Amino acid sequence: MSQDSILPIHSPTNSLDNAQRYPPIPLMSPDRSDKPRDVPAATGIAQLTVHIPSAFKENVGKGQDNDRTSKPRWRTAEFYFYYVIFILAVPVMAWIPISLSQASHPNYAYYSRRLSPGWFHGRMVDNSDAQYRSFRNNVPILCKAALGYLVIKYFTRRFRTIHANVVLSLIMVVALHGSSSVKILLIMAANYTIATKTAGSKLGPLLTWAFNGAVLFANEIYQGYSFGSILPFLSFLDAYSGAYPAWHVMFNITMLRLISFNMDYHWSRHTTTNSDADVSKMTDKERTSTPHNAADYSVLNYIAYVLYPSLYIAGPIMTFNDFMWQFKQPLLIETRFKIMYAIRFIFCFLTMEYILHYMYMVAIKDRKAWVGDSPAEVAMIGFWNLIIMWLKLLIPWRFFRLWALLDGVDPPENMVRCMANNYSTFGFWRSWHRSYNLWIIRYIYIPMGGAKNVFVNTVLVFSFVALWHDLTFRLLAWGWLVSLFVVPEIIASILLPPKKYSKYPWYRHVCAVGGVMNILMMMAANLVGFVVGTEGVAFFFSQLFGTMEGLRFMILCSFCLFVGVQLMFEYREEELRQGIVRRC
């Protein structure tokens, strides 16, 4: 497996023979239906967005007379005009990066060395992004690992004990990290000790956060600390590094599970448990918030959760409570849903392949090969780098979620919307890395006061998110920018609340103008944090706002974004008519 970074992108007295053995998958409790949950499916254009069962709300959108929905605008003269603009603008947005990626372009020589031989129509491929390359190059190995794991689980399903999960998890970690797996297990042991010794006390959360924060910083400073640097006579162990020696890179995700386990265990001491709860009738939120018996917070369950193979490398992130409810009473996930999800993954993967073969945006960005480019071309370099960033995260997350779904585990969907289908700052972060967002809400935002201190909590949350991704000023600047950019939306929602003004025809258009501003600010913030940094964004701004040609382009661009936001509004109205409330 490639050594490149994959993604920067839970009771000692328990009786194992009794409490740790769960019924085989085919067996159901007497009052539990053996049919998959009856969750409605989206229809029409709303099917384009990935299916999220918890998004369906009863008594919402039941017909056009519902107060929360409007009559469809798809066939109005206004929207036919929008369709014309859309049909004209989108091909141009695709043609510009393709033209910049031709061998005949004057800047081609500046970045051509970053390209690799491709497999599509004789084209070179831009495989220069180290993060996505580590996934793309290892897709065959990952598919074999997933297949082997699922085959073993299939033949051992009649003996559904936690022991099988623990053994498979330990084998996977040793194969990935070699001797460094000992470091992971030692950290896990220390965290588990904190959980069991302080659960229920005020000291528990404090020690949990302090310990995991210290480990996160130490991992970054010492780069996973080699055995030789700790004790010279152990240096021989560094030779057994496994398929992926950089264990500390993946530990950022692991840390979230460690905190989840400790906090769920801590809160279970203050909450009444319901061991007879029927998982098939529980929502994902209920599985997350409903605690287990003390015996379920055992060391074997802890290991099985933290090192669960399907989600270990990159997530999505599940809470310990949710994981254990699904392990004890496996959900019945429809075969059709799994097939359609696999088709979605393949489509997204092939879309990325097409982009990497025809749009060399990452190589151009890395080499700053934009000399002489027009403001429109510079803008498209930034835009398509954001699209590639979205896809390079979405594809691994959907692969690992698909693996989990095939194993009978339903983790949260990480990417709900396309990156280009967002106009709200808050909505964007609810749909982008959604499982991480849910984790932050449960373990940081709500405990710190939630909406009572919305701005302070927003700064705190995005500062944590930035430092969790990477201990650099660039990411910290991104976090502060995002915190600043949510202020206009907060102020607008106070001055122009929808309950008071949504009935007026002008309200939708004013909101669309605000949506355009939000999109421009979100693009700027993410370009700073994840694409070109502050210097690159300063250059982009000088080209777009420092010249007459750039200003003319920005006016045209803003108009096109206005049209796009109107289509986004109507798309969400269509979802609302079907009883779908995604809040993003």
TrEMBL record:
Record membrane topology: Multi-pass membrane protein
One Gene Ontology cellular component annotation held by this UniProt entry: membrane
Matches recorded under InterPro entries: MB_O-acyltransferase, MBOAT_fam
PANTHER family: ACYLTRANSFERASE (PTHR13285), PROTEIN-CYSTEINE N-PALMITOYLTRANSFERASE RASP (PTHR13285:SF18)
The family this protein is said to belong to: Belongs to the membrane-bound acyltransferase family.
Polar residues composition bias: residue spans: 1-18
GO terms for biological process, alphabetical: GPI anchor biosynthetic process
Organism: Agrocybe pediades
UniProt GO MF annotations: O-acyltransferase activity
Keywords attached to this entry: Membrane, Transmembrane, Transmembrane helix
Places the protein is found: Membrane
Protein known as: Glycerol transporter
Segments of this protein annotated with the region Disordered: 1-39
Stretches that traverse the bilayer: 79-98, 167-194, 206-225, 237-259, 302-320, 341-364, 376-395, 443-469, 475-497, 509-531, 551-569
Taxonomy, superkingdom: Eukaryota
Any single Pfam family the record assigns to this protein: MBOAT
